[in-house]
Design goal:
It is a single chain. The chain is 83% helix and 0% strand. It is built from 9 helices and no strands. The longest helix is centred in the last third of the chain and has 26 residues. The protein is globular and about 55 Å long. The relative contact order is 0.15.
Length: 174
């Protein structure tokens, strides 16, 4: 078995295990007040690694009622963006296999060309608008060899704006 396949399988197992841990040990992720801003960062990082982003949404709203919204948005967006990098790396590691199996299809070539052209906007919209399918965006970006730095900056910007709005709502209404 090639190193890329083993790496991809380990990442999938890790992500599924982390997602299960969130449901099995929910108390670890509930009490953000005692962890402060670091807890918001950690929770959003773990949420970015898992398949279910629900805790990230809540930490921004609750955090905004306790801390300055800009600080909450920064901690939340940095944590979730770093977590989202896992799916980009998984896509990059599976790129050769996907390209080998799909590059003969005209639709794949067309989608890849459009993603290279409009992928930044697609990723930004996906990062800003709450979307449970966002992990697939990272996989697709990796398969289409999207720049790691560009991915990071775009996702960080979209997430920062989203979490800033959520933290402001928490500051105003919670």
């Amino acid at each position: 078995m090639k190193k890329e396949k083993i790496f991809s399988i380990l990442i999938i197992i890790f992500s599924i295990g982390l997602t299960l841990a969130i449901f099995i040990f929910p108390d670890i992720f509930r009490d953000h007040k005692k962890w402060g801003i670091i807890g918001i960062f950690i929770t959003n990082f773990i949420s970015g690694l898992s398949f279910f982003p629900a805790p990230a949404f809540l930490t921004a709203v609750i955090g905004g009622s306790i801390y300055p919204p800009v600080l909450v948005a920064l901690a939340s967006s940095l944590g979730s963006t770093l977590g989202d990098m896992l799916y980009l790396i998984l896509g990059i590691s599976g790129r050769k296999v996907a390209k080998k199996n799909l590059e003969k299809n005209k639709w794949f070539i067309r989608i890849e060309a459009n993603f290279q052209k409009y992928g930044g906007w697609i990723l930004f919209a996906g990062a800003f608008i709450p979307n449970p399918m966002f992990d697939s965006f990272g996989l697709i970006a990796g398969i289409f060899n999207f720049s790691v730095l560009r991915f990071f900056v775009i996702i960080l910007t979209g997430r920062f704006l989203r979490y800033f709005v959520l933290a402001q709502l928490g500051a105003k209404f919670y």
